[in-house]
């Protein structure tokens, strides 16, 4: 996955934006995230930035792809479909880096979730 802003490879941070009812995934690299923090800080909007991204400098664990990507109150089927999408991205990255053990585990996890999503139809 590439950074939406600078096109660098290997992005592990992501924003999820709900625009007109459609959820868009915006991947961001660490450098661009820091630049956006600096801009928010200069504009006096650090609290809004923290609330929106879930990240700020000095926070020990920035949000990674697949972590709390959706609202807690979302319909269970929607949560599963979004988790499935995040797992597919991780599977692609594991295959790219030739981490076959991780890829096999992710493939199995995807199969289980796909079966649940198709069975329940949510």
Helix content: 40-55%
The helix tally amounts to 4
Number of strands: 2
CATH architectural group of the largest domain: 2-Layer Sandwich
Quote the distance from N terminus to C terminus.
27 Å
Strand content: 5-15%
In which order are the strands of the major sheet placed? 1-2
- Structural shape: globular
Structural class estimated from helices and strands: mainly alpha
Specify Rg, calculated over alpha carbons.
16 Å
Global mean pLDDT: 77
Structure description:
The protein has 4 helices and 2 strands. Strand 1 and strand 2 form a beta hairpin. The longest helix has 21 residues, at 76-96. It has 122 residues and is mainly alpha-helical. Strands 1-2 form a two-stranded antiparallel ribbon. Helix 3 packs antiparallel against helix 4. It folds into 2 domains: 1-65, Wheat Germ Agglutinin (Isolectin 2), domain 1 (2-Layer Sandwich), CATH 3.30.60; 70-122. Residues 81-116 form the UVR domain.
Task: Indicate the topology.
Blueprint (H helix, E strand, L loop, with lengths): L12 E7 L2 E7 L1 H13 L3 H8 L22 H21 L3 H21 L2
Antiparallel strand pairs: 1-2
Helix pairs in contact: 3-4
């Amino acid at each position: 996955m590439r950074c939406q802003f600078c096109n660098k490879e290997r992005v592990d941070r992501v924003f999820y934006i709900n625009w007109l009812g459609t959820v868009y995934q915006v991947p961001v690299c660490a450098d661009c995230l820091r630049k956006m923090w600096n801009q928010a800080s200069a504009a006096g909007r650090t609290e809004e930035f923290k609330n929106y991204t879930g990240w700020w400098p000095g926070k020990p664990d920035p949000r990674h792809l697949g972590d709390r990507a959706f609202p807690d109150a979302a319909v269970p089927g929607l949560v599963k479909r979004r988790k499935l999408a995040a797992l597919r991205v991780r599977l692609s990255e594991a295959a790219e880096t030739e981490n076959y053990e991780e890829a096999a585990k992710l493939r199995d996890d995807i199969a289980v979730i796909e079966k649940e999503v198709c069975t329940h139809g949510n």
